[in-house]
Amino acid sequence: MLCINHSNTDPHFNLAAEEYVLRNFKEDVFMLWRNRPAIIVGKHQNTLAEINLDYVKEKNLDVVRRLSGGGAVFHDLGNLNFTFIKNVQKDGNLVDFRRYTEPILQVLKRLGMDAKFEGRNDITIEGKKISGNAEHVYKNRVLHHGTLLYSALMSDLSKALKVNPLKYQDKGVKSVRSRVTNIMDHMPQKIDVLAFRDKVFDYIIEAHNEAVLYQYSDADLQHIEELMEEKYTTWKWNFGYSPKYNFEKMIKTNGGHIEFHIHVEKGIMKEVKIYGDFFNMKDITQIEKLLKDIPHTEEAIMEKLATVSFDEYFHGVEKEAFVQGMF
After folding, report:
1. Are residues 196 and 118 both part of a single domain?
2. Which residues pair with 49 in a beta bridge?
3. In terms of C-beta density within 10 A (0-12 exposed, 13-18 middle, 19 or more buried), how is residue 192 classed?
4. Do 48 and 129 lie in a common domain?
5. Strand 294-295 relative to strand 62-65, pairing
6. How do residues 208-239 score in pLDDT, each as one tens digit?
């Protein structure tokens, strides 16, 4: 088994690295990695329905979609991520969360904590979640990855993922919020996250006689960065891949109340209806048509609205407030 402990904290790179290793390596692989502050959403989720967009913009957080299913998670440098990629028999049990979390449980127990596997895919300490796990199958290889909340900023976690569920009606997989805790708070002897990372890595090497340390070659890095640029940094993958959804919201502005009803497919607004008690000089159906078939992003909407005399359609309404109301 190849063991990779790399220091790159760019979430786009790290998720691209997982996919590259899954698809191109033949060996079993174990990886440890950390991300700078970012939100990682599940493959089948509506990204906008999972994130607090205002907070994401304020903190300039990366939002990246991963290959596996499950819910959205917040990463920062106090969060350690682990990945197992293994070859399996197709007639066997391809999805087996307990199998891949067992080594992590053993590390935590060795460090003096009573960690348990609970529910479908969680590791807990004293009933609080410290690890969520997800899996993705490619041919005869399984990618299993999980989070390890070690010294994460819990206030950032809750703010980044806080969103009003009434805005979105869709069939995307919804995140389930759990009571969480940091591993460090339960450590008999406190160590920092990097020392904890090393203990996890050392245990995996010790537990696998065939373990071999591996560093990415220049060719590996080039392929990973190409995949990152082509996929993991793109709006199309991170937002446009979202399932169909309907967005509904009412806002109060200086020019009156405005109510939005938006139908979105693959990140593109296919239908926009606007209601309210605002005053207008021109027919707002022209605005509804103008906004049709463009990405559901602030940038795309502002660009379109810059081509018209906005006040003639929504007298006294601030354009910025109008656009923000569509999210």
Report:
1. yes
2. none
3. exposed
4. yes
5. unpaired
6. 989 999 999 999 999 999 999 999 999 999 99
Do 107 and 151 reside in the same domain of the chain?
yes
| Residue 4: count of CB within 10 angstroms of its CB | 20
268 plus 190 within the same structural domain: no
**CA 54, 59, 63 angle in degrees (round to 5)?**
75
Distance of alpha carbon 127 from alpha carbon 233, whole angstroms: 36
Q: How far apart are CA 51 and CA 81, in angstroms?
A: 20
Among 240, 264, 286, identify where a domain stops. 240
Identify the domain boundary among 195, 218, 240: 240
Q: How far apart are the first and last CA of the chain?
A: 45
Residue 177 — very low, low, confident or very high, per pLDDT cuts 50/70/90?
low
Across all residues in the chain, what is the average pLDDT? 93
Are 161 and 193 part of one and the same domain? yes
Domain holding 281, by residue range, is: 245-324
| Tens digits of residue pLDDT in 156-166 | 988 999 776 66
> Does the pLDDT of residue 63 top 80, yes or no?
yes
| Amino acid letter, residue 100 | Y
Q: Is 9 exposed, middle or buried (0-12, 13-18, 19+ CB in 10 A)?
A: middle
